Amino acid sequence: MKRVGFYPCCANDIREPSIALTGLVDEIVYCDKKWSLRDDPVLGNSGPSRTFWRMDLRDALQKISQIDVFFYRRDGTSEGGSGVFVLGREVFPMVLSKMVADHCIIVTDGSNSRGGTFRKMQRNSGLISCGKHITKRSEQRFQGMGVLEFDVKPATTYEVTSHR
After folding, report:
1. 2-41 burial, b if ≥16 CB within 10 A, otherwise e?
2. Which has the minimum average pLDDT: 35-39, 43-47, 109-113?
3. Whole-angstrom Cα distance, residue 143 to residue 108?
4. What residues contact 137, with CB distance under 8 A and at least 6 apart?
5. Is the pLDDT at 98 greater than 80, yes or no?
6. Mean pLDDT over residues 39-49, rounded?
7. Phi, psi of 122 (to 5 degrees)
């Protein structure tokens, strides 16, 4: 089965995520409503295949069928940023609903987090949300990029009731 990475609000940040996600995903869907769609000619055909969508990430979340790796960084609410609270109460559940495999990954710097989501994800117990248990990975392969890596797995009934 093809593994899909999703990178919303990416502007023209194509090369570094493509290199980082090589071996983790077969395709990366880049999405931003403000950019001119273009591939990075230096990458050529190396790494995962790349798909470019010019649309709001909420529309993209309606369109994408699955997300195995969610990559999100360097976004904000000021001019030039998306202004969308991707790690907030409205959008984050939409992201998690597309993470249907038994083991998915979130790679993020915590941009546009609301409700303490990013802080809770970093706790030893992690975060239970939308039937998913999100925990910080012991191995952090992307710290040099200023992001953290999290495992996303289905939450057990015990985990859901004990986290209330």
Report:
1. ebbbbbbbbeebbeebbebbeebbeebbbbbeebeeeeee
2. 35-39
3. 10
4. 105, 148, 149, 150, 151
5. yes
6. 71
7. -85, -10
What's the DSSP call for residue 38? -
Side-chain-side CA neighbours of residue 133 (13 Å): 17
β-strand partners of 51: 29
Contacting residues for 121 by C-beta, under 8 A, at least 6 apart: 106, 127, 134, 135, 136, 150
Alpha carbons 105 and 151: distance in angstroms, whole number: 5
| Polymer length in residues for the chain | 164
The token duo for 145 is 């990029």
Res. 160 pLDDT band, cuts 50 70 90: low
Rounded CA-CA distance 108/147 in Å is 5
pLDDT confidence of 135, banded at 50, 70, 90?
Answer: very high
- pLDDT band, residue 157 (cuts 50/70/90): low
**How do beta strands 148-154 and 132-136 pair?**
antiparallel
In this model, does residue 88 exceed pLDDT 90? no
Q: How is residue 40 written in tokens?
A: 């990075």
DSSP E strands in 4-147: the ranges are 4-8, 27-31, 49-53, 69-72, 104-108, 127-129, 132-136
